[in-house]
């Protein structure tokens, strides 16, 4: 299965085929509004504003799997992200990013880009995956790696 074969839901419940992003560079992030890393939303938004015209798609995927730091429903998540962080990049419906119920998108991402010491599992919120214009996962970044540190990798792919 290719990344482009996967379907996800938008934050408002609409079906979105990942093939809609064919030809774009994607930065895919599992997010949580109540996480200590939530200030990264603003930096992700800055990347979106700076590079969207060149083909970058920042895609947020809320998950409540880490210390229940995303307990709200999608409407509340969207509102929180817009009001507190100015987010306009695409957010999606809450998903599982690890374990037996992991969404197919995250099963694919973690199998193609391993984490620290070769682990597949997502360890925390704001793990980031950089995907090239051909749908190939090229790099995985730990939650502690801020978006500004990823910017040179993005610029190279654009």
From TrEMBL:
Family matches, as Pfam families: GSHPx
Keywords of the record: Oxidoreductase, Peroxidase
Active site annotation, chain numbering: 35
Domain of life: Bacteria
Gene Ontology terms: biological process: cellular response to oxidative stress
TM spans (from-to): none
Keyword Oxidoreductase: yes
Alphabetical list of Gene3D superfamilies matching this protein: Glutaredoxin
GO molecular function: peroxidase activity
Cited PROSITE patterns: GLUTATHIONE_PEROXID_2 (PS00763), GLUTATHIONE_PEROXID_3 (PS51355)
Family matches, as PANTHER family: GLUTATHIONE PEROXIDASE
Record family assignment: Belongs to the glutathione peroxidase family.
Stated name of the protein: Glutathione peroxidase
